[in-house]
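Lecture 7 notes: from sequence to structure.
We start with the chain below.
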Amino acid sequence: MPRARHGNAVSTTRRGWLGAIGSAALLAADAQAGSAAAPIVQPTSPTPAAFMEVALAMRRQAEQAGDQAFGAVLVLENRIVGLGPSAVVTARDPTAHAEIQAIRDAARRLQRRELAAAVLYSTSRPCAMCEAAAYWAGIGRMIHGSALSDAGAPRLGRC
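Predicted structure tokens for the same chain:
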């Protein structure tokens, strides 16, 4: 059964962003999915829990923009390389799910389409479309939810 989903970038002030994520301020305030110029501030400790906290911050950013409550980040070699707040509503794009936004952002930043060995952290289990996008990007693993559930390598045709 299909799920409603996510993904947009919004511009916020540094103070508003930092207030939204509190002391776990891990990202540049004005970082936008789709803005390759904005640097990604990395967690002080590159752990799965820290990466999920950033995905949760992306979810809060999407909610504050009036979008669906989903967020994702893409991690390669213990560094966040892509950010993905949901933009389905605000961009009027049914494919702008958080996971796809993070994949697109990473591909732009790294200037490549192949993201082998990357790990996708998302606030919920990726839908079939997002899992297929992760598969085609060569992503190695998907982690979802605050319990850090390991969904393994992406596959095609999951229902």
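Points to note: Residues 13 and 48 are 27 Å apart (CA to CA). Residues 1-36 have pLDDT under 50 and may be disordered.
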